[in-house]
Amino acid sequence: MNEIQLKYGCNPNQKPSRIYMEDGSDLPVKVLNGNPGYINFLDAFNGWQLVSELKTATNLPAATSFKHVSPAGAAVGLPLSDTLAKIYWVDDLGELSPLACAYARARGADRMSSFGDFIALSDVCDADTARLIKREVSDGVIAPGYTDEALEILKAKKKGNYNVIEIDPSFEPELIEEKQVFGITFEQGRNKLDINEELLSNVVTANKDIPENALIDMKISLITLKYTQSNSVCYVKDGQAIGIGAGQQSRIHCTRLAGSKADNWFLRQAPQVLGLQFVDALGRADRDNAIDVYIGDEYEDVLREGTWQKTFKVKPEVFTREEKRAWLDKMQDVTLGSDAFFPFSDNIERANKSGVKYIAQPGGSVRDDLVIDCCDKYNMAMAFTGIRLFHH
User: Which domains does the chain have, with CATH numbers?
Assistant: First the structure.
């Protein structure tokens, strides 16, 4: 099959729509279930590239949770702590496979943004991962294969309409890629940049100590950014993205947005949040929404009389600004990647508030010396890659 007809393009008025191979060869994908749309395939193909590169760079199974052609989360398959299993709502599933751990991390980093995601998996989808996917609100999944049990689980999702795509992992696209905008064809070389340790070897700060786990996190940040709409930055901790700021025109706004998401990820682990007593009938998505409001500045929206009773068995105490800051001060050894250089040191100041210790960025700003000085002030280690990672 060298063509798949789609219902419509980005919007229902954009017809006709299809994906096809211009040279007449077979498509490298098969739709095993459902009827994926235009945006589904954009998410699927970007997500597949991301996880396959993560697998190559780390030798660990990888997963990503995509929304609107940018990752909401990306991770490799490291075991989950009891706390992470609890805040990701998977503590009732027992021990999970490495691939399922990768998706639990990718989905759990920013559960608000991941709602209704498209999933990409680096490895054959197993039953553990399928069971985890089945309980989440999601549009579809792409993987290089599925076990029989996993496929049956996924086919039962969304009343049999869940999108399941299988991709040929050996497929290699042409070195030149094209797209049209306003009837005009754009052409460029495909971004085949290999994110490796040599790329991270130019450490420009006084602190040059970057341990192996931080190097892995740097690779995760840069590979994630490679498939995130620019401008973008990515905070990573212990093998998973914990905050992604995508598509902002200003670098500092990227850093603030991603930093606030990283902060929320860590605040979910605070005793005040872990101790919340939800009413029994409240679903995971509603719990996520309640937590997001509770840890934010508009906490009164879930704590006011007549409202809290619909969410909590016991009315929570206010999680004060001072208590939140004290908890966030415990977040350490976070890695930050940027798809382009930091033009001002304000980005470093903001990163420090979210526990950043390691930074990977291209360098090349006229104010690099001020950025380096700011990193030295906080004893951060920063590598200049010399490579920009814009993605549009």
Answer: 3-167 (3.40.140.20), 194-267+328-384 (3.40.140.20), 276-318 (1.10.287)
